[in-house]
Amino acid sequence: FSTDFSGLLLRRLASVPFVPSVRFSLQTNGSNVLTRTVIRTYVRVMRSELQVARGHVAARLALAEQMPFGPVLIAELLALSAAPMTAELALRRHALWDKVIGCASAQQMIATSDTVHGVRGTLELAGGEAQMLTAQEIACTTHVSYATAITHVALVERVADWLPACWEALDRGQLTLGHVKAVERGAAGRSPPRPPAGSPATARCAG
Description:
mainly alpha; 0% strand; elongated
């Protein structure tokens, strides 16, 4: 290592309060010994700083895990994107993004259901016709294929009729959209149970 590199490391260490005394005590050693000692000290300091930073990240993730879905949670996850993380911390952040995606999917499904009911009521169309028209509009607006749009609309209608509890669990971040689709496939062919009139599930899925 060059003398310039040693000097650079020493200047970096000088910014750490407990390091200058170590630096001055090392100046009497030969340059090679000094360089190796400085590097070892630098690595120890960096590891200590990293551990402290990861501790702060863990505390912030613990708070985020208690937050409801909303802009504050999303802003916190975005702010943590550049934070130093272990694999365990990154996995917790991944799970929180999964919660955000699930809640966003539930909100999108509510908007889809509102669209179907609006088309059905305004144009006085039958259920299947309202779904087809809604799918056409979604395909044009979001630039997806009609097949993708009609599949989504049909899923929303079946979940609203058969699986309102799953819809609410998706909205709370307790299920993913993949889970809801799997449950819906398993329930295909059964008679759709309707919740009692006025229940939270009915109000939530009525659109």
